[in-house]
Write a structure and sequence with these properties.
It is built from three helices and nine strands, in the order H-E-E-H-E-H-E-E-E-E-E-E. By secondary structure, it is mainly β. It has one domain: Nucleic acid-binding proteins (OB fold (Dihydrolipoamide Acetyltransferase, E2P)), CATH 2.40.50.140. A hairpin with an 8-residue loop joins strand 1 and strand 2.
Length: 109
C-alpha cells in the first residue's frame, strides 16, 4: 500500500505525439517519440519500447498520458524525458489514451 502523498508527487500530463522515429541504437525494438506537453512544459523526447505493438502512423497525433516529472534517463544514447503510461497483459500493450480531445499539457488527476 502507498499513501496518497506519494501519488501527489507524480505529475501526470496529457501529451500529443508529434513525431516517431525508430531508435536504431536500442537493443530492443524501440521508438524515439517527440511529445507536445503544451506551452508550460514544451516538447520532450521520450524513448518507449512499444514498437512491436504500434506502427508510427498509429502513434502520430495520438494523445496519451505521460509522467512529466520523471527523472531523465539515457536509453541507448538518447536522453528520455518522461514515460508513457500503458496497460499490459500476456500478449499486448495498450497506451492510456483519452476519450475526448483535451489540450496537451493538461493535468491528469
Amino acid at each position: 500500500m502507498v499513501g496518497i502523498e506519494i501519488l501527489k508527487e507524480i505529475d501526470l500530463r496529457v501529451a500529443k505525439i508529434t513525431s516517431v522515429e525508430d531508435h536504431e541504437g536500442a537493443r530492443k525494438p524501440m521508438y524515439k517519440l517527440t511529445l507536445d506537453l503544451g506551452p508550460e512544459l514544451g516538447a520532450r523526447t521520450v524513448v518507449a519500447g512499444i514498437k512491436i505493438f504500434y506502427s508510427k502512423e498509429e502513434l502520430v497525433g495520438k494523445s496519451v498520458i505521460c509522467v512529466a516529472n520523471l527523472e531523465p534517463k539515457e536509453i541507448a544514447g538518447v536522453l528520455s524525458h518522461g514515460m508513457l503510461l500503458a496497460a499490459e497483459d500476456d500478449s499486448n500493450v495498450a497506451l492510456l489514451t483519452l476519450d475526448k480531445e483535451i489540450k496537451p499539457g493538461s493535468s491528469v488527476h
